[in-house]
Design a protein that fits this description.
Dienelactone_hydrolase-like; 7 helices; Rossmann fold; single chain
Length: 248
Amino acid sequence: MCHSTDSRPPAVENPGSVAEEGLIELTSQDGTTFSAFHAHPGEPNGRGVVILPDIRGVHAYYQDLARRFAEAGFAAVVLDYYGRTAGLGPRDDEFEWQPHFQQLVPDSVADDAAAAVAYLTGKNPGITVFSVGFCLGGGHSWRLAGTELPLAGSIGFYGLPGLVEDRLKDISAPLLLLLAGDDVATTQEDFEAFRGKLDDAGKAYEYKVYDGAPHSFFDGGAPEWQDISADAWQRVLDFTARHAQAAA
């Protein structure tokens, strides 16, 4: 489990309002209908995010995270991975994700992400869209930078570099890697090897390793990680602001 069942994302500084939120259904490029959660800001900043969750799909943590992004001015959509095998609906703490995770296909995640991007751009003409993911979703987020999606950048928190291997040479959007120094899912050697491959391929990326921080440090209920969570939020805000301006 990437987070404890009672964890929630940290708050943003000086939050704005959420104008609209709720569960929606989207249709993937292969015709699959899947669940998603959207949150739209009361004070838009012209940016949007497709949120790729951890193994739990559209869990309450990620619904709250969409709200936090909306409070920061972003239009946000969390996609659920398991529409093809588990049907529709949000995922609670009792959801048995293991058999569905084992059937997950990266290209299907990209198809679902394309539907989420289309939803954001259709509802918010002229918006600049980024992907942001966590653990499993972090790897998928970085991988999306190597697809044809019109992303201005891809952000991953303690992601899985192995998910990017088949798309590494195709990466065309800048990456932000926010990494846990004491990650138990991916070693620092693996992250260093991933950065080396990005360097060898001439890909644009930024990274921050939070020394001593565990996998899933982005938790508003963990006061010991409050400072690094605030730093990670600021890096996301700065990264998206710079690259939105560059894409304009």
